[in-house]
């Protein structure tokens, strides 16, 4: 059975058919999904969805949204992490991190919320789910500065081999998704093929990062075509990983499920 370590099931793109999306995922063999929050306003929503469908969740403030975040949001996060500390479905803090690709995001504000949430992760003893986009070195610097030892997942990892090894040294697993399916993604496919098998986890980032069979060109999107990703696509993405590694799909599913549990230990009780 497959584990999707990153799916925004609360996204508006799923409002019309969320139950059907979950049913398709289960029918495809996806037994567990981690739903990360992105803003304080959806903390309770992701928790409710995880409980409704038997999945897992993480709480955190995404770097793309920190420009509208407040100190009160950090206080709320701290309070909920305490309140829900015995909730077995709360598996980590995320999605947090840094994004230096999108313009008009103040680096200092991003760093403030990133470091503050790392400190909360350290205080509450939880792993983190990191947003990594042109920010690997700065993320690593924050992890070392705070002294986080609980590890976690580098979501949609797209850094260098050296950066990958640095995250691994700090106890992180690395997330691979739809980008693997594009033959032109040479660096990401090389990492997925060559890194130690125990550090690989799978994700969809649904409704985002569609695999190549769902991808639409700019012209197609302008004409109204959509390319919504779903957690039910995970087995096909996993089959790409299996091909790159010389595994059977069953080996890919079991290896990445085991690695997901190593990254987010509370998943063990949910996967029993």
Helices and strands, in N-to-C order? Answer: EHEHEHEHEHEHEHEHHHH
Mean pLDDT equals: 96
N→C terminal distance: 12 Å
Number of strands: 8
Strand fraction? 15-25%
**Numbering strands along the chain, what is their spatial order in the largest sheet?**
1-2-3-4-5-6-7-8
Structural class: alpha/beta
Q: Biggest β-sheet, characterized?
A: 8 strands, parallel
| Contiguous uncertain segments of 5+ residues | none
Summary tags:
single chain; 272 residues; alpha/beta; eight-stranded parallel β-sheet; 11 helices; 43% helix; globular
Q: Quick gist of this model?
A:
With 272 residues, the protein is α/β, with parallel strands linked by helices. Helices cover 43% and strands 15% of the residues.
Walk me through this protein's architecture.
It is a single chain. This protein is an alpha/beta fold and 272 residues long. 43% of the residues lie in helices and 15% in strands. It has helices at residues 18-28, 43-53, 71-83, 107-124, 136-146, 161-169, 186-194, 218-222, 234-245, 249-263, 267-270; strands at 2-4, 30-36, 56-59, 90-99, 128-133, 152-155, 172-176, 200-202. The longest helix is centred in the middle third of the chain and has 18 residues, at 107-124. The termini are close together.
Ordered list of secondary-structure elements with their pairings:
Elements: E1 2-4, H1 18-28, E2 30-36, H2 43-53, E3 56-59, H3 71-83, E4 90-99, H4 107-124, E5 128-133, H5 136-146, E6 152-155, H6 161-169, E7 172-176, H7 186-194, E8 200-202, H8 218-222, H9 234-245, H10 249-263, H11 267-270
Parallel strand pairs: 1-2, 2-3, 3-4, 4-5, 5-6, 6-7, 7-8
């Amino acid at each position: 059975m497959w584990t999707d370590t990153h799916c925004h099931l609360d996204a508006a793109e799923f409002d019309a058919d969320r139950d059907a999306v979950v049913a398709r995922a289960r029918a495809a063999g996806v037994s567990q999904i981690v739903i990360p929050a992105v803003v304080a306003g959806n903390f309770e929503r992701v928790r409710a969805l995880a409980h409704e469908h038997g999945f897992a969740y993480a709480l955190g403030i995404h770097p793309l949204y920190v420009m509208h975040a407040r100190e009160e949001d950090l206080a709320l996060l701290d309070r909920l992490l305490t309140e829900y500390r015995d909730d077995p479905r709360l598996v980590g803090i995320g999605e947090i991190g840094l994004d230096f690709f999108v313009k008009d995001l103040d680096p200092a504000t991003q760093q403030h919320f990133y470091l503050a949430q790392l400190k909360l992760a350290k205080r509450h003893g939880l792993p983190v789910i990191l947003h990594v986009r042109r920010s690997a070195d700065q993320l690593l610097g924050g992890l070392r500065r705070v002294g986080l030892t609980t590890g976690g997942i580098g979501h949609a990892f797209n850094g260098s081999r050296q950066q990958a090894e640095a995250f691994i040294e700090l106890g992180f697993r690395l997330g691979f998704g739809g980008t693997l399916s594009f033959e032109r993604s040479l660096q990401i496919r090389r990492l997925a093929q060559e890194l130690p098998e125990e550090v690989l986890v799978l994700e969809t980032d649904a409704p985002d990062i569609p695999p190549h069979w769902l991808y639409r060109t700019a012209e197609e999107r302008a004409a109204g075509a959509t390319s919504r990703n779903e957690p039910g696509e995970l087995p096909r993405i996993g089959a790409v990983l299996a091909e790159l590694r010389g595994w059977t799909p069953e080996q890919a599913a079991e290896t990445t499920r085991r690695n997901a549990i190593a990254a987010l230990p509370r998943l063990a009780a949910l996967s029993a």
